[in-house]
Structures are given as structure tokens and as C-alpha cells.
Amino acid sequence: MQHFDCDYMEGAHPLILEALVRTNMEKSVGYGVDEYCASARRKILAACGLEDGEVHLLVGGTQTNATVIKGLLRPYEGVIAATTGHVALHEAGAIEASGHKVLTIPGCDGKLTAEAIDNYITAFRADEAWDHMVWPGMVYISQPTEYGTLYSLAELEAISAVCRKWEMPLFVDGARLGYALASPATDVTLKDLARLADVFYIGGTKCGAMFGEAVVIPRKGLIPHFFTTIKQQGALLAKGRMLGIQFDVLFTDNLYIDIARHAVELATRLREAFRDKGYEIFAEAPTNQVFVALSAEQEAHLRTLTTFSEWERTADGRLVVRLATSWATRTEDVEELINAL
Amino acid sequence: MQHFDCDYMEGAHPLILEALVRTNMEKSVGYGVDEYCASARRKILAACGLEDGEVHLLVGGTQTNATVIKGLLRPYEGVIAATTGHVALHEAGAIEASGHKVLTIPGCDGKLTAEAIDNYITAFRADEAWDHMVWPGMVYISQPTEYGTLYSLAELEAISAVCRKWEMPLFVDGARLGYALASPATDVTLKDLARLADVFYIGGTKCGAMFGEAVVIPRKGLIPHFFTTIKQQGALLAKGRMLGIQFDVLFTDNLYIDIARHAVELATRLREAFRDKGYEIFAEAPTNQVFVALSAEQEAHLRTLTTFSEWERTADGRLVVRLATSWATRTEDVEELINAL
Amino acid sequence: MQHFDCDYMEGAHPLILEALVRTNMEKSVGYGVDEYCASARRKILAACGLEDGEVHLLVGGTQTNATVIKGLLRPYEGVIAATTGHVALHEAGAIEASGHKVLTIPGCDGKLTAEAIDNYITAFRADEAWDHMVWPGMVYISQPTEYGTLYSLAELEAISAVCRKWEMPLFVDGARLGYALASPATDVTLKDLARLADVFYIGGTKCGAMFGEAVVIPRKGLIPHFFTTIKQQGALLAKGRMLGIQFDVLFTDNLYIDIARHAVELATRLREAFRDKGYEIFAEAPTNQVFVALSAEQEAHLRTLTTFSEWERTADGRLVVRLATSWATRTEDVEELINAL
Amino acid sequence: MQHFDCDYMEGAHPLILEALVRTNMEKSVGYGVDEYCASARRKILAACGLEDGEVHLLVGGTQTNATVIKGLLRPYEGVIAATTGHVALHEAGAIEASGHKVLTIPGCDGKLTAEAIDNYITAFRADEAWDHMVWPGMVYISQPTEYGTLYSLAELEAISAVCRKWEMPLFVDGARLGYALASPATDVTLKDLARLADVFYIGGTKCGAMFGEAVVIPRKGLIPHFFTTIKQQGALLAKGRMLGIQFDVLFTDNLYIDIARHAVELATRLREAFRDKGYEIFAEAPTNQVFVALSAEQEAHLRTLTTFSEWERTADGRLVVRLATSWATRTEDVEELINAL
Predict the structure, then answer these.
(1) Alpha-carbon distance C94 to C100, whole Å?
(2) Which chain B residues have a beta carbon less than 8 Å from that of A66?
(3) Could C71 and B75 be called an inter-chain contact, meaning their C-beta atoms sit closer than 8 Å?
């Protein structure tokens, strides 16, 4: 039985583990002001083409989304997201818990368009009752999205332009960012993100780390006292250097991208194999996730071969499942599954 | 130069690290429903003398306090704590961020008394305007306290009785619980805590783990849907088994207590040495922390020997500092510092 | 120029004003524990056929919705509402400000169906990731809805049954309840509401009072310490008797229904006149509001005759407007508008 | 039996009631954009010596405090208040409900000093752990205080200077402001408040109105989108003109001050009479409240003469009571009570 449930089934990339072991008995002060965190910050800023800017290291994705959004919004504001956005659906109300509404716009394969955002704001401002409604204060998108799809550079530039036109910060959830950057289908680089987004994060948990998300704020001071807000949200790791070490390793010798590329290649092989065997691919997702809509027969067969995640139901009632690869997925396991399909 | 700043300066206890390395490439599902978490839960419940009960594994202390308190309180309720309580002072408003007031009562060396709590509630209920005020909905104490002091069994029983009399859950912050349990000065066991508290946690971060706090709820279902509240607070680790592995190791062969005893013994030697050399010990704290009130001269001297934490100022303006030992503190380092005092 | 913008353009019904003047110099204690409030409570409970139960008098609708919902929900819960529900759209995020998500289900003419609610819960509980999502903790509907439409007794009974099946309280926003109760199209009485809803309110602001909403909780104690939560939400009027006097008058000699009937009759005449003149009636709303979809020409004409509220745009871009009558609307003004259409 | 419980026992000043009756059947749009609100705003700004500035009309005091404080603070910030401040004690946690901590400083007779505030901030910024603590984001004081005491102009100027030095807005709760402005003991005018405070409000509920508090923001735009925040807090009255009419009357022909002067004069007579009869006056409060510490015998006697509010207990266990006068207090009632003491 194989396991393709998700991209966080194993521990940490061996190079990270090795660094954790090597440095284990060193002493450092807590809360992220140690030398490893400093080194990680420098490397991340360099990779983003930023001379200056803030990098904050948090533990997990929902936590990061809630903390950044709370930091960016004023009480009368909400965050625009796709109806399928992680903050809208699968964070147990974390955004609302900090007092803010998620303003949903229907997306397509998990993506918002600049036009849809622009129309939303235009209609909002034209509404006679606008000041009785939640002011759209920022835009949240994911790269890749929850469906593994990617924004192209042109799409991102358009969204960024709409955000700047309406003076709303753009926040990019990069919980799986490595798989986007490593996809042959992308034309978006870290430097593009640093230019187009106001805040974004580089996911570690799902891309090689044991845990950790690196929030990048290209324009220093955009969120005043963000350290204190991180602490308030319970998102400040006492032994902060554990985060520093992990991101320092991930951003040494291109490791972050290299391991993600491996996952994307295996997912691509898996996706093509499903397609070849007559399965219906559910979303055109050129990253590390494979979405397949299964007939009852296919579902029964696949259950004998591997575990996976149940995603949703199609309009005609078929189960859509997700298989995910990661830095840790073994080529032979993928081949074994392909052969058995 | 020595470093006694705090008890979270190193990584994880070697046995934990070894387990993390050994299991690294195993696959498990996320969010804490794996076998390592199950094993850790069983061992913790057994150590607490509980046949049944809930154990939730969270990442850090502030996060745990905020999540438990949010889970226990209704909107009109607040949490009683000592004025010096961690939730009252050093969590950046995490409790208030979830909508609840911290109702402070002056303590002594960080401790509340049953009598003070009882008087507070009695006065509250006698107040003509009680229903215009925040209802005291629970009691928060720490074992050991922020000053390293300990509640005796009699004190805990009295506090627990007052809480039950007034139908308020008692929550014990055990961020450093190991050092309390291992102190020769204590008569309180884990089983006592499980009997007297409604919720408490067993701190990992400061007691041997890389990170992690194990929340014990002896009476199952006391906080309905607590898993979802944990997720909402951003306190749910994706690779949950990392927590399970750590607590599984800590609760195997008495490791949790053994390593804490080491730290307490070294702190005791350090404390006695300070006293012998004429330094003023600030709080009678029989655990792993040493609080010393320094004259200007002593301060200058100590700064040449070691780093430490600045705690507060005495009424006459002297600096109170804290030195902490941990499972990782080396005996020779303590001896070197003692000799140099 | 006529004015049919809304049903809160005038002050208070003359009988209310008279009572306020008559009692003005009396002295009473504050916060709603005076004799007028007691009398209003007795009359409201009697009208609801309740021997026991709670009645709380608040000031306004958004405030009442936010306070009741906060009182009913636990942190992990959200409130189900129609996409067009007032709490979902036009309360500036008041529900989210208290930490809760509004879980929207598309309605029809502002109404939810029992089946849609049942399907929502069924799908939610079948979702693999349900405990990462906001638990549906209650249902919010309005009688009449934002579109002036009405739930029939059968529809309400079905919704109530679904709520009880899933153990979710049912909350009915009755900001315009008078116009529902007085509609010839309704078969729902106050006694039905008291039997089928867990909390509902009887709107005063839009139905004859200067301000005020009477929250009825048929089952005493359902929301513990609700008085304190009302205070916390800033919804407790110091001179509480002003609310008592108003509801006492409204519930004397059937005034509440009689004045609402007048408004519904005039709205019906207006609606029929629009239809007769070839205007498109937008929603079948047998209460005090008239929704009309206007061609550009019709819009231009209507603007010369009266003010109104702009509601939304039809799919083909026409403006939908709302005209509202109230207890204060004069028959001759309606006739003048009809003649000029 | 007399009644001196509080200053909100009667309805509205007769001139206000008359205006409400006179305008009752006029039609106006809702939410405070009518002509009466505009007129009230103009008169209030003029009385404050402001050419420009915002005036928002809310319903009650707790609501106003919570809304203004929420509008002024960012998530990481708290509000400094006296330990006895209304927001710290008697608002049922309304400030915490919006996510913010009340940072209390012990006062004297309800008053804070500039020095105490300055010391607090100085110590905060010197604290090694400041960024783990709630940032002091504003200062809240009351004029008069909860003990009826007054800040002198020099004291207010000093507090304002400290606030500006540390870049914290100063918010003055003026729920009873009329009685401060009308006190012979004051040297502070409305113009001084408008110059020294960043936000303050002019209390209506306790000073002649049926309800209503007028928030003045001398520097326009200080709180962006404040209207929406007011709506979100449930503090926006639908029939907003009811507030406009009341404040328009209060600020015509000096009514607000004249009626407050009456109350202060009667309170002064009452206070002197208590003192003459050997009662202990509890706080030097030159406004409309009289605080008396009663022996058991005095308490028994007073209870036969009048109702009052129980305030607190002295260190030696005697009851402190409060008697309040208002615009509505009759001279003969005060004289009758004095004679019977």
C-alpha cells in the first residue's frame, strides 16, 4: 500500500536534520534573534532580490495567514479571497477569530482574476450602502492555489496592479511555494513575488522543513510591531533558531528549489499516467498535486493501491481525490503505483 | 563567558533527536492522529493515573494558554491570574485578543492563595454592579510560577476546592512542570495535578523537547471541539507526529523527570553558591531558576562571567536577574561560574 | 416629492410619544429593571403564549443580531445565514468582530429552505476535513426577509425541525416582524415563533418605536449571563425604561399589529399599482416593502416623484429599488404617488 | 422616600422632549446624515472652537468607549487607564471583547497623573521584554472621573503633553462632561478639551438627553472609516436624527451647561450638609456626585430617607455610598433630605 495523502507525511529533509543534530548543543537566545535566523534572513532576502526588507519565521500555515492578515487589516476591513481559498474554508475560522470577514469571490480552479477583483471593488464602491459593509482591505491569493494551479506572471502583475490602484496590500500564501517556483510551467520567480506582493511567505512545512514558514515583507515597517502581533497570536517559537537553521539550509545551494523540482517531476509522471489510463484529471495543476475525479470502479481500484485525500464531489457525484508528492517521495513508489493503475 | 539566560537555549534532548532521526522517513498522516501521538497520549495518561482523558499536543506556551483559556471561557467570563502571571504580563495580550479579560489578584512570589481567590469571588458576588463586570470564569496558576516557586499539595488542594465551590475550572500552566515535579521541595505529583486541575499542561519546550506542550484534560469532553479551536488558533502542527515522538520519548523510562532533576540540582548548587558569596536571593524558588538581586558592583562583576535575564528592579533600584539551568546545563559550567563568583 | 426610502423616516408612534411625555419626570433605576420594562415583558410573554421565558430590550437591530449570536455560539462555531442575510452583508462585519464566521447558503428571495440547511450540515459532517472547518452552530433567518418575503408556517416548522435534529438553535431576526404578523399572506403567529425559534426578536425601530428591539428567549437560561453580554456589547441602555415604555405601549390593545397592518395595506396598494402600470415587481413580498426592477425610463420617471432606496442590479443591469411604507405613511401620499406613476 | 441613586433616573429635559414631539412626523433619512444631526454638529464644533473636525453621535457610554478605543488601537496595542476607570471595571469586558488589554495604573480619587503615565511608558520601554508585552497605544481618562473629581487645566495639559511626547492619542470620557464644565471648581473649557484631547465625548445620557453621546474628533480623519466601525459595533442608531435633535437642543442657548450647573449646585449643598452633620465625605468631588463613607448607624438612618448607590467599602469596612443629582433634581427634594439628615 502506497501513501500519497499529502506532502507532509515525512519529517525533515536529511540536510536539515543533519544541521539540527550538528548544532543541537549550541546555546543561543530565544525568539529568533540568533545568528542562524540572521543568516536565513540574509539568504532569503538575497534570493528575493531585496536589499532590505523583513523576514519573520513562523511555525505553520494557518497561523501565518491569521497573523499576517491581522497585522495588515484595520477593524473595519476584510480580506478578499477565492471561495475555495484556504483562509475561507479550512482554517476553522481563524480569520474571523481575529475579527475580520473573509470576502469571497468565486474563482476558477482556485484562482482569482484581476478583473474579478476590480469588479468587486468597483461594485462595492458604487453601492449606496458601502459604509454599512466590510471594506475590502487586502487581497489573499495562494501560489500555487489549493488546486495546485499557478498564477502566471501576467496574471500576478495584473492582480498586483489592481491592488495598488485600490490601495490594498496583496498577500500571497506560499505554503507550497517551492512547488510553484520549481514548476516548468511557471514564469514567476521569487524576485517577481517580492516586487508584486506586499507580503508573501515561503512555505517550509510542505517543502522540506520539519515545520516553518518564512514571511517576507519587502517594504520594511509595513506592519508595525509585527513581532508583538506574532507573539500575541502564539506564533513565536521560543527556540526560534530551529526555524533559522531550517531556512538557512533550505536557502543554501538552491536546496529549496531542487527538492521541489523532484516532487513536481514525480507528480507530472503520475498525472500523465492517470490520464493515459483513462482517469479524468480534475484541475490543470502543474505542481506537486494530482487531482483525479474517480468513477466508482476507479475509486474502488485506487483504494487497493494507495491512500489519498478526499477532496470534493463533482456535480455528478463522483469523488475527486488528491495525491501529493513531496521532496521525500521515492521514484520507485511512483512507478509502482503507475504500473498498478 | 557562560550563558544562563534561560532554559531554552539548546535544541532537543539527544534521545529525542535520535528518535526524530530514526523515524524521519516514515510516513504518517498529519495533525496528530498518528501512532506516535497515540503512544505519547497513552504514556502521559498513565503517568497521570488517568484511565481516560484527553491529551492534546501543541507547539508553544503562549499559544497553549490562549487556546485553553479560549476553550474554557464564555464571552462574559474572564480568567483569574496573579498580577505577575505569564498570561497577565508577557503574552502580548494573547488572552485579550481572544476577547477575555485577565482578572488579576496580587500574589506573593508569583503564587495565588485559595483565600485570596475566595475573597475575590465573594466580593465580586456581593458587588451591587456585578453583572456590569467580567464574571470570573476560571483560575490560572503556574506550577512552578514565573518566580520558580511551588505550590504545595495543601495549597493546590485548597485552590482546587475553592474553584470547585465556585464552579470555576482550574487551569495549571506547566511550561516548566518537569522542574516542579523533580524538585526535592515538592509534594505534588502528576496524579495530584490530574485530580486537582481541570486542565493542565506538561511543558516540553523548556524541559527537554525541541518544542511542544502536552495539554491534559482529565475529564473528557470538558472543552467541546477543542481540536477545531486548536486549529483556529493556529496551534495545530501539520506534522503532528513530531510532537508525538518527542513526548513519547520524554515519557519513556522517566526521562522527563530525570533530566529535570539534573537541572534542579545544578540550580540549587548555584543558588547556594550565590547565597554563600553574599548575594541576595530574591525568591525562594526550589526549581531550575535562580533569582538574585544585585548591587551595582555585583551586577558589574556578574556581567563579566555570564549572560542572564534581567527580571525587574527592587524597590531600592537594584537589578533582579534570573539565571536558569536546564537538562542541557553542564556541571562543569556551573562549577566554573561558582568558582568565579 | 414623496419619500418612501425606508420605514424609519419618522419618530415614534404618537401613543408612544405620549407615554414618554407623560412619564418623563418619574424616577426609576436604570438598565431595564424598572416597572415599565417589567410590564412590557409580561405583555410580550403573554402575546407569545409563554408562561415563562426571557425578554431583553435592546436598542437596534445590528446590535441585537451581534449580541444574540455572540451569546449563542462557542468559539469554534459559526452561524448559518442566507447569502443575502442582513448579518452576512449589511452589518459591517459585526458578527466576525465577535469572532464568528457567517456560513452562507444561497437562498431564494432571501429565504433559506430546511432542505438546503439539512444538505449543508449533511455535507459538512461527511467532509473528511470537517474538524478543520467552522462548525455550524446555529441558524439565522429573518421574518420577513431582507426582500420582504415570508416563511410559511410549514416552512418554519421544517426549518425548526432540521435545527433540532442537528441540535442548532434557530434565531429569527424580526426587525420588521410586525409587518410579517400583520400580513394577510402569513399563517405564522407570535405563538408559533415562540414554539419554533430558540431566540427571536420583535422589532420596534422599524415598527412604531423610536428605537428598540425585544429579544424573546422562550427557554429561560438558554444564554447564561446574557445581561452581562448585552452590557459588554454596549447594548444596554442606561435609561432602560425608555425601552420598557415603548414596548408596553406597542403591546397594549394590539397596537403593534394594527399599525403594521396599515403599512402592509398601503404597500399592497402601491405594489399592485406598480404592476398595473407595467413595472416589474422584483420579489413576491407581501409585507411593507415594494421591490421594483426599473427600466432606465422608469427610473428617470420615478426619480421625479419620490425618493427610494437603491437595492441592487438585475442581471441585465436594471436598477432594483425599494419603497417602504410604515405605520406613519399617509394614505394620501400613497395615492398621490400611484396617480403619478 | 427620596431617590438619589444616579443621574439617569428621569427621561429627557423638557426642551428636548418638546423638540422630539414637534419634529416627530417629519421624514428624514437614517443613520445620522439628516439636517438635525448636521445642525448639532455645527453647534458642537462651534462650542469647541473648532473650524473643522468630526462629530459622531452614539447612543451610550460603554458603547462609545469601546468603539472609540477599537477605532484608535492597532492589534498589538492596549489602552492606559486608571485602575478605577470605567473601561477597566464596569463595562463587562467591552474593551477586551474588541481584543485589547486595559493597562491599568493606580490613580488617586480616580485621576491619573502625567508623571505616572510618563513613568509607566519609560519603564515599559526600558523593559528587556517590552516586545512580549502589550504596547501602550493610547490613554483613557474621564472628566469628571468615576469619583466625580476633576482634572485641572494644568493637569490636563501635562497629560496631553506626555501623550504627544510618546505619540499616544488621549481620549477623554465625558459621560458626565456637563457637570465638569459647569463646576465652579473647574478651569477647563470645551475649547481646552478640543485642543488637548485627540478624541473626547460630550455625554448626553447623564446630562439632560434621553440618551446619546457626542464624540468629537478635532483632527478630521484620525480614525479612518469610523462610521463603519460604529456600525460594526452596533452603535449606529437607525433613526439617527433622534440624536441630532437632542444635541441640537442641548447646544442651543447654553442649555447643556445651564442644566448641569443646577445639578452641581444642588450636589454642593448636599455635600456641605453631609459634612456639617458629621458625615465623612469620601472624595473631593466638586461635580454632581456626593460620596459619603457611612458608619453603620449613619447607613441605617440614610436608608430610611433615600435610595442611593453602594460604591465600595473603606479599609475599615464602612460602606461608601454615592448620591447623584441631575438636571431633573428638585431643590425641594434636596432640602427635604438635608433637613432629615
Answers:
(1) 9
(2) 234
(3) yes
Q: What is the pLDDT of residues A49-103, one digit of tens each?
A: 999 999 999 999 999 999 999 999 999 999 999 999 999 999 999 999 999 999 9
Q: Which cell goes with A180?
A: 510553484
Chain C hits for D2, CB-CB cut-off 8 Å, are none
Tell me how close the Cα of A129 comes to any Cα of chain C, in angstroms: 8
Q: Would you state the pLDDT for residue A283?
A: 86
Q: Which CATH architecture has domain C2-8+258-340?
A: Alpha-Beta Complex (3.90)
List C-alpha distances in Å: C6 to B296, C150, C291, C308, C327.
73, 18, 12, 7, 11
CA D303, D308, D313: angle at the middle one, nearest 5?
Answer: 90
Hey, which bits of C65-210 come out as E strands?
77-82, 102-105, 135-142, 170-173, 199-203
Closest partner residue to C76 (CB to CB) among A92, A99, A132 is A92
Cβ contact (<8 Å) for A90 and C132? Answer: yes
In angstroms, the separation between the Cα of residue B111 and the nearest Cα of chain C is: 30
The answer on pLDDT for A284 being more than 90 is no
Omega of the bond leading into D14 within 30 degrees of 0 (cis) = no
Share of chain D above pLDDT 90, in %: 98
The CATH class given to the B14-250 domain equals alpha beta
Q: Rounded to whole angstroms, how far apart are CA atoms A19 and A37?
A: 13
Contact B299, B246 (CB under 8 A): no
Residues of D whose CB is below 8 A from C63: 234-235
The CATH number of the domain covering residues in B2-8+256-340: 3.90.1150.10
Please tell me the pTM assigned to this model: 0.97
Distance CA A211, CA A217 (A): 20
Q: Which fold has domain A2-8+255-340?
A: Aspartate Aminotransferase, domain 1 (3.90.1150)
Residue B283 has pLDDT above 90, yes or no: no
A138-172 residues labelled b (16+ CB within 10 A) or e (exposed):
bbbbbbbbbbbbbbeeebbbbbbebbeebebbbbb
Q: Cβ of B75 and C76 within 8 Å?
A: no
Cα–Cα distance between A8 and B37 in angstroms, integer?
16
Q: In C188-329, where does DSSP find H-type helix?
A: 190-196, 226-232, 241-250, 255-276, 296-305
For the stretch D222-278, pLDDT in tens is 999 999 999 999 999 999 999 999 999 999 999 999 999 999 999 999 999 999 999
A142 in Cβ contact with A169 (< 8 Å):
no
Torsion, Cα B34 B36 B39 B43, to 10 degrees, reads -130
Are the Cβ atoms of A131 and D225 closer than 8 angstroms? yes
